[in-house]
Amino acid sequence: LLVHAVNPHGFSHLHRTNEDNIDLNRNHIDFGAPLPVNAEYTDVEPLVLPASWPPTPADEAAVAAYIDKHGMRAFRAAVTKGQYVSPDGLFYGGTAPSWSNRTIRSILRKYAASATHIGWIDVHTGLGPYGHGEKIYPGRNTPEDLAMAHAWWGADVFAPFAGDSASADVSGPVISTAYDECPNARIAPMGLEFGTLPDNEVLTRLRADTWLRRHPEASDAQQREIRRQLRDAFYCDNDEWKGMVLGQTRVVLLQTLQGLRKA
Question: Which residues contact 30 (CB under 8 A, 6 or more apart)?
Answer without folding.
Answer: none
